[in-house]
Each structure stands twice: as structure tokens, then as C-alpha cells.
Amino acid sequence: MKREVYKLVSRKEEFGTWGFHFRACIYVGLLFGLTYVWVVQGSSYGLAFALGVSQALIGLNVQHDANHGAASKKPWVNNLLGFGANLIGGDKWNWMQQHWTHHSFTNHYAMDPDSFSAEPIFSFNDYPLDHPNRRWWHCLQGFYFLFFLSMYWISAVFNSQVWNLHHSGAAFVGIKMDNEFTVKRRMWARLLKASYIYWNVITPFQNHGLGPTPFCHVMVLGVASSITLSLLFSLSHNFVDSDRDPTKSYRETGKEVCWYKSQVETSSTYGGFIAGCLTGGLNCQM
pLDDT confidence of 180, banded at 50, 70, 90? Predict the structure, then answer.
């Protein structure tokens, strides 16, 4: 497996290259610049869209790769860039619980939180026709899929899990972070969450007053961030000929499943250079 990987990624490029760090600097600079205008000069519809997309790019690229430990050989660099999760309304430590669980059981219908977190509204899993998790409205989900993805920002920003740093999806499959490390970081997680809400949600009302206009600005920010982030993330795990459920063949035929194969097929960068710049370029190293 290493021999095949090294055909694509040389031994000097296992971690973030100069190209990755250059791209990360652009995305971070764009986020801070747009946030400054948003807070100081006031929000607008165009700015809301641009800021939402910039936050999604931080989530797809900077914080994702850093919290995987793949951005740099130096742990402090990964730790610092990993706080990008907090800059876009999420939380570094809560994300790590969820995402590490996801990669331990990639696309497993009952063990991967990402595979069932949207149920029962819509389903990513190919359940048998008589399975209780399959609902009649799932045959229509292609029509309302994007609408509910656009609500991702609201569910992430106003999620109560950050207050105790217990991710419900990870805990559901038996992974619990009841330890001193997590307890010591709860206060910082709360402060960072409150700061994000103030800069991104409260300041538009301070600049424009109470009314529908600042509310709509905030919603456009949220929808732009949601669609960019969640749609591209969904595409990276659902494409033609991938084993969407790596355990399905085993349950049906008893054929053994290669965990490494399922990781590659459901966690890969796709589409070449441009798509790689939009959705992260370090997945193959991970």
C-alpha cells in the first residue's frame, strides 16, 4: 500500500507542502479580511455570501487537514491551524471526537456518526427495503437534499454540545471523552463559540439595527457556508463505484472487507488540482 501511495506522494511530501501553506495563508487572510469588513463597515448580501464561502474553505482545507495532524510535522502548527474550526462556528475538540470516530468506521451504517446524523430527514445509507430506518419520504430526498444541507450552519453554530464537549454521535458508538484534557478545554470552547456568535451574528444587528435586513444577511452567510462545506464534503464520500457502505458485502456475502480500501474509496481527494484547492489536498497522506 505504501508503495502505491508513494507513486503519488513522495517521501518528502507526507505533510503539508509549501503549496498547502501558501493556500492556507490565502484562505486565512481572506477570512480575516472579510470578517473585518463585516464587523467594522457593516454586513451586506454580497459580503455575507463571500464570508460564508471563505468560512467553508477554512473548514474544508485548513482546519480539516490540521486536525488530522497532516498539515505539518510540527504538532504546534497543526494545533494552531486546527483552531480554524472555531473561527467558522464549530469547535476543534468536538470536531476531533466526531471526525476521528468517522474515520474509524468510515460510512459504517451504525458506527459512523456522519452516516446517520441526517436521519430521519434523509439517509446516506442503502438500507434494505424493509429496514426500519428507511422512510417513505427518502425516495424524494433528491428534491429536498440541498435545502436541508443549507441548514447545516445553524445546527453547527447553535449546537449545545460545545458546552460540555461531549459529541453525541461519538458517544453513541461508545467513544466518550470524559477526561482531564477535555474538561480543561470546556471554558475555552465556550469563549470561542461566544466570540464567533458575537462577531458574525450580533454585529450585523449593531450596525443596521433590529430588523429583517441584518437577519437576512446572517442567513445568507449561513446558507453559503453550509452549501459549500456540506455539499463538497458529501461528494468526497459519495461517488460512482465507491463502496459507500464498506460492510454491506460482508453482511450479505460474508466476504471480508479491507479497511484500508474503504478508507481510500470514501475519503479521497477528487477532480484534480482545482477541486483539490477547494476541498483539501492532504487526504491521500492521511
Answer: confident
Give me the amino acid identity at 81.
Answer: L
CA distances from 78 to 68, 71, 81, 171 (A): 8, 6, 5, 25
Residue 160 DSSP symbol = G
In a domain, 2, yes or no: no
Q: Looking only at Cα atoms, what is the longest distance across the chain?
A: 63
Residue 284 has pLDDT above 60, yes or no: no
Residue 75 in grid coordinates: 504538532
> pLDDT-based confidence at 174, cuts 50/70/90?
confident
Give the model's pLDDT for residue 221: 97
pLDDT in tens, 4-58: 777 777 777 778 888 888 999 999 999 999 999 999 999 999 999 999 999 999 9
Q: Let me know if residue 5 belongs to a domain.
A: no
**Does residue 286 lie within any of the structural domains?**
no
Choose the weakest-confidence range: 8-17, 99-108, 168-177, 276-285.
Answer: 276-285
What does the CA dihedral 166, 58, 66, 162 come to, rounded to 10 degrees? -10
Q: 27 with 61: CB under 8 angstroms? A: yes
**Ramachandran assignment for 272, one of left (phi > 0), alpha (psi -120 to 50 degrees), beta (any other):** left
Q: Residue 179: which domain range?
A: 12-279
Distance between CA atoms of 112 and 172, rounded to whole angstroms?
10
Shortest CA distance to 175 belongs to which of 101, 81, 228, 115?
Answer: 101
Burial of 129 (0-12, 13-18, 19+ CB in 10 A): exposed
Q: Which amino acid is at 120?
A: P
**Domains contained in the chain, number:** 1
Assigned domain for 75 exists: yes
Say if residues 257 and 246 touch (Cβ distance below 8 Å): yes
> What pLDDT shows up at residue 75?
92
